[in-house]
Amino acid sequence: MGDGRQARRDRWVRFVPVGYSALLALVITGPLLGSGYLLLRDAVSTPRSYLTDAALGLGDAAPRAVPQDALLAVLSPIVDGGLIVKAIVLLALWAAGYGAAVLVRELLGVSLGPQLVAATVAVWNPYVAERLLQGHWSLLAGYAALPWIALAAYRIRVGSDTRRRTDPASEPSDSPAHPGNAAHRDDHPEFHRANRRTPRLATTGAWAALAGCFAAAGLTPTGALLAGCTAVVLVGRRNILPALILLLAASAPWLTATALSGAGSEPSDPVGITAFAARAEPGLGTLGSLAGLGGIWNSDAVPDSRTTSLAFVATILLLALVATGIRAVACTRSDHAGAATSTNTTQARTVNPFGTLHPPSMVNHPGTVNQHCAEHHPGATYQPDTAHQPDTTAQPRAAHQPSATHEPDTTAQPRAVRQHTAVAEGGEQIGIAVRRRLLMLAAVAIILPALGATGSGMAVMEWLVTRVPGAGLLRDTQKYVALAMPAYALCVAAGCRAVASWLATSTVSNSPRNQRRTDSRTPLMSLTATVFIALLTLPLFDLAWGVGGALRPVHYPIGWQQVAEKIDGPGDVAVLPGGMFRKFPYSGHAPVLDPAPRMLPNDVLQTGELPVRGRTVAGEGTRARDVESLLLQGGSAQELADLGVGWVLTERTTPGPLGESKTTLAQLIPIYIDTDLALYRVPGTVNHHNDSPATHRRISNAAHLIWAALLISAPLLAPANQRTLKTAERSTSGTSA
């Protein structure tokens, strides 16, 4: 009865990080839950968008918003586009927190408190705040995928290792000296077949999860690069090729758009390197800002707390909490090394993520417990996180800790026992490798952007973007600090456990009676986790409620819908005033991207020029610049038609250059005019040279379908694969009982 209650309690405890991560996401995005649309800097959501050439990435501009724009164009006729964007933001923040909790639970075997600490550092940090304020909602989908990609890579490597170790061909033949091995195999003819099937099924599920994570991260090209870097570093040499194939499939929309349009293959403006370089925050310097997960190039897209001395305090606290767990994460043996010998099934799954290949009773034997690295740092001495471990303190030392001169005869053990021991040790070694590589990836993700902000680093980056096609994706180097998040989550979780263990050893007597009271650690663990969470959240208090209220929905004037309905003929749309950014009365004080390209059914011409830090970073293509120059110089209507322009929209409530455009507008046909917008029709024959060939659209549609298949298949395959896996595990346990 006690075991049953404990099992039910364990199941409920596993759901706590789910709810906690959802709570954090709701606290941050609360204002967005009201009616309206997200319109803040680069973030533009609209009630309805259209599958134009620009949405497919086939326009003049580089395909930076592919396939996110196509996704909204397909779904917004069914579900309001504003709701879709809000749901993605909320889901991304939740997935980041819950993914971090699951990652530390599986790689470190920590209990609930450290899991919640890991979820907190993944969601409540300057990177999330700054990218929300900059409007990079789709980038956060790639950020959220990182812990899940790390988890999938770990499971893939363990699965490959498990299949190799449980293959009968790799086992030495049973010798006459040990007839028990043959007897065990003969008594259970189905055992090894089921035993081999279990890791194979689990590995298939891990590959499906990796494909789905690639697709989710691939909402933007940068997200795909983040996902690819993480997978390539972690998945192992033997699995790199299939992982790259999946990544290419998930990146097919923007890769094909780049190849077909040619816009993204052009060299980028080197001015963007200086403009988008990481920025130093008060008292921290560039390296300190990046190490604190901050340092975005736009000084306006930061919470108010990051503009004061709180930025220094928050960074020091974050790095101090991370430092408490670095050694435990990088040590040669993890804190749950003895999980293979535990009677707790949950802990056994920590070493082997595919479930218990053999009944726990078969593996509770001496000689399989790995030595813990806490011998080298007593502050992190291992004590089980759960309070229901077997009491071994009353046993003689020789009963549970064999001496080096009396090693057990493992050759006399049944093959199942030897295989399980090998699997556990293999999983432990892979876990160590994954944790260490995450630490190295975090270091690189912080150091390289810091170097990129130096004079020499900028020179190297300028050489790249002017000579290597597509290198412009690297110019906003602070984006790649996201790669440090999984390692930070591991370190703060391990640090929370180490501090709680140190407090336990400092406050509890060393008598055997008190040592048996392992439940005395529970209050200390809860207290330590609470302190860690407070130290992470309080210095960045203004991340709550829409980053201090900046993240709030807006309501578009009814004129936008009227204009969209009036555009019923061919030709692209030119927009006045000049430039890509607007300040509407209803959008707040921050400049926002013009919503016209996502609001109107025809392609809207945009120059791609970005005003950054007093400079203008040139965009790709020339036709949009030619059209804008023609309007500002008062050119003729026929010249507009020759450039493929069929419509001109004037946004009347936003500042910006108008030049001599009145001369041109006087030659056009007014279609719709109100206090906010004015739409004009360009008379004459419109040149259609700008339209993408039908073949290009078919290829682009096929690439988007591949991406959508990966995105949808993972959640569909995962439940079915999990059910099959559980059936295989029951079959394995039954045949070996």
Low-confidence stretches: 173-187, 334-384, 386-408, 514-520
Could you estimate the helical fraction of the residues in percent? 55-70%
Could you tell me the number of beta strands?
Answer: 11
Q: What spatial order of strands do you see in the largest sheet? A: 4-9-11-10
The biggest sheet amounts to:
4 strands, mixed
Number of helices: 29
Based on secondary structure, the structural category is mainly alpha
Question: Could you tell me the mean pLDDT?
Answer: 83
Identify the overall geometry: globular
Distance between the termini: 21 Å
What's the gyration radius in Å?
29 Å
The amount of beta strand, in percent, is: 5-15%
Write the layout of secondary structure elements.
Layout: H1 2-29, E1 37-40, E2 43-44, H2 68-75, H3 81-108, H4 112-123, H5 126-134, H6 137-166, H7 179-187, H8 191-217, H9 221-234, H10 240-250, H11 252-261, H12 271-275, H13 285-291, H14 310-330, H15 345-351, H16 360-363, H17 397-400, H18 415-452, H19 455-467, H20 485-507, H21 512-515, H22 521-537, H23 544-549, E3 553-554, H24 559-566, E4 572-576, E5 581-582, E6 592-593, H25 596-599, E7 610-612, E8 615-617, H26 623-632, H27 637-642, E9 645-651, H28 661-665, E10 669-673, E11 677-681, H29 694-736
Parallel strand pairs: 4-9
Antiparallel strand pairs: 1-2, 1-3, 5-6, 7-8, 9-11, 10-11
Helix pairs in contact: 1-3, 1-4, 3-4, 3-6, 3-20, 4-20, 4-22, 6-8, 6-9, 6-18, 8-9, 8-10, 8-29, 9-10, 11-29, 13-18, 14-20, 18-20, 20-22
